[in-house]
Amino acid sequence: MGRTFLVVLIYALGGTLVAGEPSVRNSGLVQNVMGELVYVTGLNMVASVGSQLRVDNESSGDSTSLKVIKELDDVLVTQIVEASGSGVKVSDRVRLVGTHSSDQSLRTAYAVRIDRGPKMDGILNDAVWRQAQPIEGFIQRDPGYWIPTTERTVARILYDDKQIYFGFECYDSEPNQIVANYMRRDSELWGDDNVQILWDTYNDKQNGVFFFVNSLGAKRDLVLSQEGRTYNEDWDCIWQAKGHRHNRGWSVEVAIPFDQLRFKKEEDAVWGINLARFIARKTESTALMVGRRSSSPRQRYRTTDLAQLRGLKSLKTKSLFQIKPYVLPSRLQNLQSTDPTTSTSFESGVDVRYGVTPNMTLDLSYNTDFAQVEGDQK
Q1: Which helix (H) or strand (E) holds 11?
Q2: Given the DSSP bridges, would you call strands 208-214 and 194-200 parallel, antiparallel or unpaired?
Q3: What pTM was estimated for this model as a whole?
Q4: In angstroms, rounded to a whole number, what is the distance separating the alpha carbons of residues 132 and 111?
Q5: CA end-to-end span of the chain, whole Å?
Q6: Which residue spans within 201-320 are E strands per DSSP?
Q7: Which of 2, 98, 333, 371 makes a 20 to 30 Å CA pair with 213?
Q8: Pair 190, 214: CB distance under 8 Å
Q9: Domains delineated in the chain
């Protein structure tokens, strides 16, 4: 009887140890937390993109669900899906819940509808900004790759019936080193500290629109095509941007009218989006979503690797109709004549832009102001 009991006990202990091995093997540790992103070590060989992880706090009973969105050499980048209690901390233990192979490493940003937009002064102190859901966890595209940014960035998105609003709070540990050289529209802002917005309003990964803004509120806009491989700099969207410098960095407010954009009429729209920031003195490019590794600056225009923008409900499309008249006075005087005479003249013209369909725009021009055309091309 004693021998039988000893054998059963050893078998039971052995079974417990064997059963416990997968839980040790399928667990890792939190290395870093950046906004909604959690960097996890120890699970690279067992979890893949799309896998579900969980952080359990035994003392408080709190738990946080994570989803793997990127595999790096020795760390997994995960996104918080659902959290409760105190959240995730460095060195928390993480366990694998389920493996689900997926190539969709999407992040999601949310826009919040408001009745009236904020005052456009570049300062994010209006009460309506507190209604927006903060967007954090910007990651490096260059010089690092998918590692946390060295300077914190927080973005927010609001919209009303007429416009969509973006707010960027760009914190900087050395605010006196912020680079801002340009104030004129369509300048080469990519060398300044700047923020960027990329939209794919049809969410087809083919076309998009792109906006730059620096800390002075200078702006630049482009139209993207062929997955962002080509772009048109001649597009001039009618939009507002204001910048503000302060002792913690700088901030920007952007307002873009919906009638400047082409999109499908949907009850609950989902657009492709990317938000980015460039820190000039560090040549550090960061973004909400980073695609394949590349040192090319044109990688920022790619529409194939975007996050999702949700929360846009009951948007109304409006046919574009713009009239842009001009008057150009001139005064001529023959200074070589002994009796100089002066003559004056006026030239006028008009440009008309009409949206025939959401995908087609008709441009008409009478007596085009070619001086302005030449200026735009520069």
Answers
A1: helix 2-25
A2: antiparallel
A3: 0.77
A4: 7
A5: 97
A6: 208-214, 219-225, 230-232, 240-246, 249-257, 268-279, 284-287, 307-313
A7: 371
A8: no
A9: 2-98 (2.40.10.170), 108-313 (2.60.40.1190), 321-377 (no CATH)
Q: Which helix (H) or strand (E) holds 342?
A: strand 342-357
Q: What is the pLDDT of residues 14-46, one digit of tens each?
A: 333 334 444 556 889 999 998 889 999 999 888
Query: Quick check: bond before 143 cis, omega within 30?
Result: yes
Token pair for 111: 């826009």
- At 44 the three-state DSSP class reads coil
Question: Three-state DSSP class for 159?
Answer: strand
Tens digits of per-residue pLDDT, 173-198? 999 999 999 888 888 898 999 999 99
Judged on CB neighbours under 10 Å (0-12, 13-18, 19+), 176 is exposed
Distance of CA 315 to CAs 161, 222, 250, 263, 369, Å?
7, 23, 31, 9, 35
Q: Which residues of the chain have pLDDT under 50?
A: 1-22, 103, 373-378
What letter would DSSP give residue 162? S
DSSP state letter for 25: H
> Which residue type is seen at 74?
D
